[in-house]
Design goal:
42% of the residues lie in helices and 16% in strands. The chain is built from 15 helices and 15 strands. It catalyses: ATP + [prokaryotic ubiquitin-like protein]-L-glutamate + [protein]-L-lysine = ADP + phosphate + N(6)-([prokaryotic ubiquitin-like protein]-gamma-L-glutamyl)-[protein]-L-lysine.
């Protein structure tokens, strides 16, 4: 697909730290966080003016799902907009808590593991053609996803045989299957839930739940951009060397724990390349495909250059090549530098605090934001693009229609309901279903609903 719908769903870690000794349960903290949302939306599951979805997920995790996007930078801007929306809720909740006699701070972390070892996700959604046989696609995509953590892992500290080690990925140790319909108890790399929110005769949704949340915009660009390119290669039907893994779950764990990239990955064919060699092979295939068919958007060359630079950095163990661009490398430099300066082991509580604070989305506290302000972490977005994404939907997808409907309903004070494809005026008759074309930006039936809402009662 030269033009694809993308979406990101990010679950945030939530913690309340009292300064007066009065603790709150996670449920109470989440209830305070979402009180303004419930006040105007009559629910903790709402769609916003920018077309995105905001809700409380299982385990009191706030979750933000971007509106449908069809451009890489657009998607990154809308993902970053989610952080802004969440920070606004934190500010309101802290003010409210103070009025109720609670002195403390709410923290939101864009990470994937809490202190108890529970994992929560960053889910990627890609619109793919129905005509592509799904098993074939999964067989071809999983080798890339298993080794993709070299490109875009968030970095993490884990205990391995009584030793604390810095590893590539936060999610790798929490995957249990290659492909399944589960999302929590037996997490797969690819979830099979088929909700295309488009004409199901022609489209299906690819739901990838193996990835780490990204603080870095450049990491996000590589994560989504490289995956899109691999999908485009698979969708073309071109035949390439069989890279199916004998045991994806064993491989994903061992790769994460080996910072050299030299972990051997056994293929179904009997070949035994290293994780790094597998990534080099896939990059070579993708570059050949782009050379033959051309770049389908203006960020392709940037994605390919960054992809190659990461592999060179891992191969040479010269992480300075990417320590402003890739989350695991940025964090690795921060943690190892601090540990050496202060003569600390990686098992130190101070190091654990750094590992967590890197993911604090508050720009006044979060270490990633501090590094970016100091010029030690790169960006791809103009801040104005993020501010615009907070208020406005992508203008090139169905989200523009949803946004128009929500704004009209809220302006008129009418009762309404909406989700990804349904829009209903509760005080009128019927509703509209937009499940055919996710790229459509206008709809006459929705316009009629809006006119109905604006008529005097």
């Amino acid at each position: 697909m030269d033009r694809r719908i993308f979406g990101l769903e990010t679950e945030f870690g939530l913690n309340y730290v009292p300064s007066d000794g009065r603790r709150l349960t996670p449920e109470d903290a989440a209830r305070h966080l979402f009180r303004p949302v419930v006040a105007w939306g009559r629910s903790s599951n709402v769609f916003l003016n920018n077309g995105s979805r905001l809700y409380l997920d299982v385990g009191s995790h706030p979750e933000y799902a971007t509106a449908e996007c069809d451009q890489l930078l657009q998607l990154i801007a809308h993902d970053r907009a989610g952080e802004t929306v969440m920070l606004d809720l934190v500010e309101q909740a802290e003010e409210q808590l103070l009025e109720e006699g609670h002195e403390g701070r709410l923290f939101l972390f864009k990470n994937n593991v809490d202190s108890a070892g529970n994992s929560y996700g960053c889910h990627e959604n890609y619109l793919i053609p129905r005509k592509v046989e799904f098993k074939r696609l999964a067989d071809m995509l999983i080798p890339f996803l298993v080794t993709r953590q070299l490109l875009c892992g968030a970095g993490h500290l884990v205990q391995i045989e009584d030793e604390t080690k810095f590893v590539f990925s936060q999610r790798a140790d929490h995957m249990w299957e290659g492909v399944s319909s589960a999302t929590t108890r037996s997490r797969p790399i690819i979830n099979t839930r088929d909700e295309p929110h488009a004409d199901a005769q022609y489209h299906r949704r690819l739901h990838v739940i193996v990835g780490d949340s990204s603080m870095s915009e450049t990491t996000q660009l590589l994560k989504i951009g490289a995956t899109d390119l691999v999908l485009r290669l698979i969708e073309s039907g071109e035949i390439y060397h069989d890279l199916r893994l004998e045991n994806p779950i064993r491989s994903i764990r061992s790769i994460s724990h080996d910072f050299t990239g030299q972990t051997v990955v056994r293929l179904m064919s009997g070949d035994e390349p290293t994780a790094l060699q597998l990534q080099w092979k896939i990059l070579e295939l993708v570059k050949g495909f782009v050379a033959r068919h051309g770049a389908h958007h203006d960020q392709v060359e940037r994605v390919l250059q960054l992809w190659e630079r990461v592999l060179v950095a891992v191969e040479s163990q010269n992480f300075s090549l990417i320590d402003q661009d890739i989350d695991w490398a940025i964090k690795h430099k921060l943690i190892t530098g601090y540990a050496a300066k202060n003569d600390l082991g990686l098992d130190s509580h101070r190091i654990a605090q750094l590992n967590l604070t890197y993911h604090d989305i508050d720009p006044t506290r979060g270490l990633f934001h501090l590094l970016r302000r100091r010029g030690l972490a790169s960006s791809v977005l103009d801040p104005l693009a993020i501010a615009d994404a907070v208020e406005n939907p992508p203008a090139t997808t169905r989200a523009a229609i949803r946004s128009k409907f929500i704004r009209a309903a809220r302006e008129t004070g009418r009762r309404y309901s909406t989700d990804w494809v349904h829009m209903k005026y509760e005080e009128g008759e019927g509703g509209v279903v937009l499940c055919k074309d996710p790229f459509a930006t206008t709809n006459s039936a929705v316009d009629e609903l809006i006119e109905m809402m604006r008529r005097p009662v």
